[in-house]
Structure formats: C-alpha cells, structure tokens
Design a protein that fits this description.
209 residues, Rossmann fold, ProC C-terminal domain-like fold, 2 domains, 5-stranded mixed beta sheet, 10 helices, 56% helix, elongated, binds NADP nicotinamide-adenine-dinucleotide phosphate
C-alpha cells in the first residue's frame, strides 16, 4: 500500500518516531503538516517526498471559523494546493504565504491570536464587575460585542480605522476610552506582544528543526 496524502498532526517532538516506521510507503505522497515548528525541510528528509504543505491553523477551526496560514514547497502543484484547501475548508478560511518564515508571523497573529482576544475579554469582564454588573453579564456583553464588531469588520469595505473613528465622536464616551488606551500605549504593547510570539515561534522552529 502506498499513501497518496498524509496529514501530520502529531506533537512536534513525536514526528521523528511517527515518520520512521512508515517511510517506505510515503515517499510519493502529498504531505500536509499542522505540526508547529517542524520545517518542511525536515519533513522532506524524514519522508522522502518534496511535496510538503505546512499549515498553521487556530482553535476557531473547532467551530468552522478558523483561519489557517499555508506554505507550499515549490514541488507542490496547483492541483495539490486545491486538494489542501478542500481538506481544510470545513475548518474555516485559508491564506497562502510565499515564504516559510512567514508562518512564524501567522503563528503570532492568528495561531496565538484567540488567546489575545480572550485576554481582552477577561479585562472587559473585570471592568464590568468594577461597574457593578455581574461577571456573566460582562461575559455576554463583551463576547457579543467582539463577535459583532468582527462581523461588521468582515462585512464592510471600510478599514478598521474608519470603523473605529465612526464610533468615536470627539468628547464622547468611546473617545474617553480610546484616549485612555492611547495614554497607556496599549497599541505599542500589543505590537510588542505579537512580535514576542513571532520570535518564540522562530526559536521553536530552530529547536525542532
Ligand atoms: N491545538 C492547536 O490549536 C494547534 C494549533 C496549531 C498547530 N497545532 C499542532 O497540531 C499538532 C497536534 O496538536 P494537538 O494539541 O492536537 O496534540 P495531541 O492532542 O497530543 O494529538 C496528537 C495526536 O497524535 C497521535 N500520535 C501520537 N504519536 C503517534 C504515532 N507515533 N503515530 C501515529 N499517531 C500518533 C495521537 O494519538 P493517540 O491519542 O492515540 O496517542 C494524537 O491523536 C501539534 O503538532 C501541534 O503543534 C495545534
């Protein structure tokens, strides 16, 4: 039996042990890996196939609303890219990147991104309690607002900046909040945090190889 396509979804540390016993049957296969940090070169070396696609998915895939960054080695054909897109479609959207290193940036934005969002929601819930609402009221208001804003952003042709400015009239309540966030340099802190995740992704890539 010779495999046509293989999906690699074991922990990165286990890849070597999982690939070794099947090497004889997978050299002609298209390989799709969701393993974090294992470079396509290592997959070529372990499997004997140059046809490797790496995917970096995220957890909203569980409800069909993920977005996976994809990188294909040059040997992967257009038809094979389409096969990968078809395989991943039930998990949400896909986005191809040109350079393998760009997957570190994808990891930092969309791979780790759901946790940044939950961190923001936790802070909104804490503020809800400060203002005398219950945590559950804060949770519902914050989650529905964030989901609604994301939906609005996706449905609109306008930039996030325009959408923000539209609800930020001078002297108003949103203006007070945004001015406070700007005073605390929240935007710079978020940029630093995302770049820290990208550096860590690159480090893990060097560790696992
Ligand atoms: N979780 C995420 O959001 C996420 C996001 C991006 C990337 N990833 C990547 O996805 C991969 C899987 O992560 P996970 O959290 O789903 O890990 P997990 O829950 O530990 O799943 C690993 C799977 O690999 C199987 N497995 C282990 N050794 C094997 C072997 N020698 N041969 C065949 N199958 C073997 C395990 O089967 P048994 O249970 O039967 O042992 C299990 O189904 C990792 O490489 C991770 O970096 C995960």
């Amino acid at each position: 039996h010779v495999a046509a396509a293989i999906v690699w979804a074991v922990k990165p540390q286990l890849f070597g042990a999982a690939a070794e016993p099947i090497q004889a049957w997978v050299g002609g296969a298209l390989h799709l890996s969701v393993m974090a940090g294992i470079r396509s070169e290592s997959i070529v070396a372990a499997t004997g196939s140059e046809r490797v696609v790496r995917a970096m998915p995220n957890t909203p895939a569980l409800i069909g609303q993920g977005i996976a960054g994809l990188y294909a080695r040059p040997a992967v054909s257009g038809d094979e890219r389409a096969t990968v897109e078809r395989l991943l479609r039930p998990t949400g959207q896909t986005l191809w990147v040109e350079r393998e290193d760009d997957l570190d940036a994808v990891t930092a934005l969309s791979g780790s991104g759901p946790a940044y969002f939950f961190f923001f929601v936790e802070a909104m819930m804490a503020a809800a309690i400060d203002m005398g609402l219950t945590a559950e009221q804060g949770r519902r208001l914050a989650l529905a607002t964030c989901a609604g804003a994301a939906g609005l952003g996706l449905a609109s042709d306008e930039s996030p900046t325009t959408l923000r400015e539209r609800v930020t009239s001078k002297g108003g309540t949103t203006h007070a909040a945004i001015t406070s966030m700007q005073g605390d340099a929240v935007d710079a802190a978020i940029r630093r945090a995302v770049l820290a995740a990208q550096r860590r992704a690159a480090e893990l890539g060097r560790e696992f190889g």
